[in-house]
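Task: sequence design from structure.
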């Protein structure tokens, strides 16, 4: 099983980034897919999740700014991040989970700084 994130980088406050996570080795449409992040000196936290049925949920801190989506034909989940703030700086991890198993990606760094 592999979850491969891409799209991270350095962006100025107010800017946008789109993260992608390509999954292989799993029946993608049977997993809830999520994005988590871990900032410097902080615990890993849930950012957004999209269930196998397509329902979404977001952390309060990103509501209205971030959008999670999935493309089951491409086995890929996305995180569109707009109006980025310095406090969004973190390593962002892709997660796949169902009742029986869960998997993590290796993480991609997002830095919001002027």
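Answer:
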């Amino acid at each position: 099983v592999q979850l491969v994130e891409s799209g991270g980088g350095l962006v100025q406050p107010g800017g946008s980034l789109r993260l992608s996570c390509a999954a292989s080795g799993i029946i993608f449409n049977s997993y809830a897919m999520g994005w988590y992040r871990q900032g410097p000196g902080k615990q890993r936290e849930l950012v957004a999740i999209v269930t196998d049925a397509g329902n979404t949920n977001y952390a309060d801190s990103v509501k209205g700014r971030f959008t999670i989506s999935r493309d089951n034909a491409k086995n890929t989940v996305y995180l569109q991040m707009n109006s980025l703030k310095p406090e969004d700086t973190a390593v962002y991890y892709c997660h796949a989970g169902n009742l029986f198993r869960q998997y993590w990606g290796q993480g991609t760094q997002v830095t919001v700084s002027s």
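The mean pLDDT is 97.
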